[in-house]
Amino acid sequence: MTDSEVGLPGVASANTVSALDGGPDLVQLLTPQGDRVENAEFTPYAAHLGAEDLRGFYRDLVLIRRVDTEATALQRQGELGIWASLLGQEAAQVGSGRALAPQDYAFPTYREHGVAWCRGVDPLNLLGLFRGVNHGGWDPHEKNFHLYTIVIGAQTLHATGYAMGVQRDGDVGTGNPDRDTAVIAYFGDGASAQGDVNEGFVFASVQNAPVVFFCQNNQWAISAPTERQTRIPLYRRAAGFGFPGVRVDGNDVIAVYAVTRAALERARSGNGPTLVEAYTYRMGAHTTSDDPTRYRVAAELDVWKGRDPIGRLRLHLVAAGFADDAFFAEVERESDLLAVRVREGCLAMPNPDPRTMFDHAYVDAHPLLDAERREFTAYHDSFEPAEQVSH
User: Fold this and answer.
1) pTM here?
2) Terminal CA-to-CA distance of the chain, rounded, Å?
């Protein structure tokens, strides 16, 4: 089956790069040196981006990295139970997040802090989850951004089911840009080996569901490299399920935006799913409980530091005359203020009453749960107030 037979919106061949950089099919619109390059298939999807849009991308990248940095520090200080860093993956998340229409719905894993930022989720909501004081704290229906999913790959089935519902509601292919809706499911290269992900592919394909499967291939499924998970590039798996796949430079925020926008428009118009593989790199640990120095070499990290998504866009903004020192200084100042708000807000979070864990387990009263509530309440009240463990 060829790409054209499954209606692929195009896999770039104009920009040939080495296998280390993702292979000859990698879609790239901004080189690591900050130079704009053309791609016949996807450049039109980014043609409307002006200086203000690109400055906005840069601001997003810097601010969400600062949130990530502060959250990591807070975990090291014992204020968060754990944290899943996005260091190095900011462009994949911001580019795809900014491509979403207001009515589109996103299903994240536990690392999509940049997408959450683009959907208007307060970073303190993310920290509350990892601090263990709430389940996320944002309204998924208000933000069109689902709660974080810890079970690896499960959100692809959620996304596919939601997309099938959107389709049955008649909100696909109407030609009304304010009504037609697409769904996007985020997952990593490690999750691509999970049964849930592949089942999602099957259902989305045969139902022609309006869903974009967005795989952030950061090269490592915790300690397992990608070559231990697949013998072909991940985006090529899509052909076996009957829908197109495309590999994009995940450190190129412009290319990610263009490719995701094309895939979302394809879904909204009723042409079914697409698999987008954002070829990127996890520059930090898998989570704060992980030590990546035990399974990868420093030289590999050094190579990818030279492809940093923030530095790449900054080079372009300067070369194009889109930004000056005053702009970068203002973004840095905003970053400092955000860091203060994140730190102070995290420390000020009220600890929940542990007895509330029983409040929303069932819709109606349940005798076993009621008995457990009474037993726990008696245990809880047996402690002196100063000795009570709040969380």
Assistant:
1) 0.90
2) 55
